[in-house]
Amino acid sequence: AEVEETLKRIQAHKGVIATIVVNAEGIPIRTTLDNSTTVQYAGLLHQLIMKARSTVRDIDPQNDLTFLRIRSKKHEIMVAPDKEYLLIAIQNPCE
Amino acid sequence: ELKEEFTRILTANNPHAPQNIIRYSFKERAYKPISYVDQMAIHFSLNGNMILKDSDEGRRQSIRLSTAAEKAPVETSAVTSEETEIKDEESTGDTQAAGDEEAEGSGTAEVAEAAEAEEPPRPRAKEQKLANQFNFIERASRTLNNPMRERACQSEPTPCKNFSATANQWEIYDAYVEELQKMERSKEKEKTKVQIAKREEEKKKGRNLTSLESQSDDITKISKAAKIMERMVNQNTFDDIAQDFKYFEDASDEYRDQQGTLLPLWKFQYDKTKRLAVTAISWNPKYKDLFAVGYGSYDFMKQGQGMLLLYTMKNPSFPEYVFSSESGIMCLDFHNDHPYLMAVGFYDGNVAIYNVKKATSQPSYRSSAKSGKHTEPVWQVKWQKDDMDNNLNFFSVSSDGRIVSWTLVKNELVHTDVIKLSVEGTTMQGPEGLQLQTLGCGTSFDFHKKIDYLFLVGTEEGKIYKCSKYYSSQFLDVFEAHHMAVDSVSWNPYHLKVFISCSSDWTVKIWDHTIKTPMFIYDLNSAVGDVAWSPYSSTVFAAVTTDGKAHVFDLSINKYEALCTQLVVAKKKNKITHIQFNPVYPVVIIGDEQGHVTSLKLSPNLRRMPKEKKGQEVKKGPEVEIAKLDKLLNLVREPESKA
């Protein structure tokens, strides 16, 4: 569908290394990486998102987390949380 | 008898003792007399408490007495000893209660003594219980302990379940919000119960469908997140451009006298529109980063399909919405109040309304040959205010010389001819005595911002007609504007009397609609494709020419020359077709013939606001702009009035 196309475009975009779709329990549904790395990313980022979300909401319950970006030396991990899903993209911002 | 002698014997016999005692003997199983009867009679007994001095007890006591004599003053000891006596009596009385009946009297006296002696050496180990040596019997008895038997009874345990949750502030908030929603839903359900049965059935079907849909494709739920992610990925890739857009202000403008530059930002292209030319651009009135681009072809020979794309500046790689059509799109306009509705005019003379909210690629409403479409390409469409029945309506102008008002009545487009552009003085005599009017070809029009019925139409002959919606046969005024087709007319957004026009005859002219001759004329050395006023200043406008250049003018700074003339696209292969200012950001978008849309940022010189004089407040708002332009116009008008 349209969403599939969007995901394909994201994956094909310049610098994007991988995309992972994770469900509410932290189990990866779709991935373009190998299994072990995917599971690792999914588990770790899931916990981090829970923590980040609870932080934001504790300060103001009407607020909610919309996006999280972790920029590291080698690449940038971007996580877009949804009600039930988590979309993770790892990109190499070419500089 | 008196002489009888009675012998009196003095014996040691107890007179009270029985003379014979018969005891039952268990051995012989008979009663047997006991031979000897005890004759002792006790008259008095007293238990003495004298102890032999050399016995153990005696020795101990003597040691104690000697130490007691060494110790503290007698008074306090006497007082305390009294207290201790009482205490000790009680305590020792308790301890001795079990056995010691006979020794009671002696016991207490002994205790008192012991207490006295005990008082100083209390820190010493506690003395053993003093007991009467002669008569002390300790007899203990114990009741029979019943054997213990354990009997337990257990009820069936209630089923347990482990439950853990966190009670954060936001969890509580979420719970409240859910409650509210449930209440609202229950209210709605009450309302729906009143409706007809058919509708209820339909709704049930709808609900079933939605539940099926939600089960089938889980991936669709991630659409929102995917969209955000795509924009973020794009932002990363085009990071420097995004930074430029937000923060870059060309510092070299200070040294450039008064010239400005246009900084190229993102370039928008889509592979399906590579062969099509940009024929119309329009910014969305509600979302300031969203703009629509219409694709078609200006070439008479090469007419193909058309496309309508909506881009957002947040995602330069891919359009947000794509619509395709069979005929090339020539113009488009967003509705001010309904930012999801777009009116579109086609090359084949049709008009259509696209609804962005709907998922289909087809227009919601379309005109057809039956419903009075134009016979020539529609060059411009513009939305009007809703008419008296609250129907949406818009105007269109076309080369067939008609200006038509289209109204959306009950899901159909109904047309009304507003005016026919008849060329003056060209009535011909046709066959059978008919008077034929040749009609001019309208190429562009614009409605006045404040005066609703007033509008301008530019024609292919180079004339500009000032018309009113109420007069369908006559024009209010005619301006002999250009030598070639008028490509664009536009009212000044602030000043109520000024408008601008551009034409393929290489000129851009600024007019006051009360005066027949133009105020300013600019020759740009190449056919001018489009001209647009800036939304932030009444004296700034931009024009694009077919040689690929963009010209930005500011009349308050330089009346005769452009502040910026910049080559935007490759000269030979490409021509620029349209330009539009963003209403909020200092950005212009320019469309060209190869389907590319380039966005450029205006440098600070091009955006100068009037300088504040010291001590005076800076007035902001349309009045200032109007005044600014008025001042300029007066300068131009004066020599004319003199002449």
UniProtKB/TrEMBL annotation, chain A:
It holds the Pfam family Robl_LC7. It is found in: Cytoplasm, Cytoskeleton. One of its GO terms (cellular component) is microtubule. Residues 3-91 form the Roadblock/LAMTOR2 domain. Keywords: Cytoplasm, Cytoskeleton, Dynein, Microtubule, Motor protein, Transport. One of its GO terms (biological process) is microtubule-based movement. Acts as one of several non-catalytic accessory components of the cytoplasmic dynein 1 complex that are thought to be involved in linking dynein to cargos and to adapter proteins that regulate dynein function. Cytoplasmic dynein 1 acts as a motor for the intracellular retrograde motility of vesicles and organelles along microtubules. Belongs to the GAMAD family. This is Dynein light chain roadblock-type 2. It comes from Aptenodytes patagonicus (King penguin).
Automatic annotation (TrEMBL), chain B:
The keyword Cytoplasm applies. It is found in: Cytoplasm, Cytoskeleton, Cilium axoneme. GO terms for biological process: cilium movement; determination of left/right symmetry; outer dynein arm assembly. Residues 82-92 have a biased composition (Acidic residues). Consists of at least two heavy chains and a number of intermediate and light chains. Interacts with BICD2. Interacts with CFAP45 and CFAP52. Interacts with CFAP53. InterPro entries: Dynein_IC (IPR050687), WD40/YVTN_repeat-like_dom_sf (IPR015943), WD40_repeat_dom_sf (IPR036322), WD40_rpt (IPR001680). Residues 185-204 have a biased composition (Basic and acidic residues). WD repeats lie at residues 479-512. GO terms for cellular component: microtubule; outer dynein arm. Residues 65-127, 185-214 are annotated as: Disordered. Keywords: Cell projection, Cytoplasm, Cytoskeleton, Dynein, Microtubule, Motor protein, Repeat, WD repeat. Belongs to the dynein intermediate chain family. SUPFAM superfamilies: WD40 repeat-like. GO terms for molecular function: dynein heavy chain binding; dynein light chain binding. The lineage of its organism: Eukaryota, Metazoa, Chordata, Craniata, Vertebrata. It comes from the Eukaryota. The keyword Flavoprotein does not apply. Transmembrane segments: none annotated. PROSITE patterns: WD_REPEATS_2, WD_REPEATS_REGION. Part of the dynein complex of respiratory cilia. This is Dynein axonemal intermediate chain 1. Gene3D superfamilies: YVTN repeat-like/Quinoprotein amine dehydrogenase.
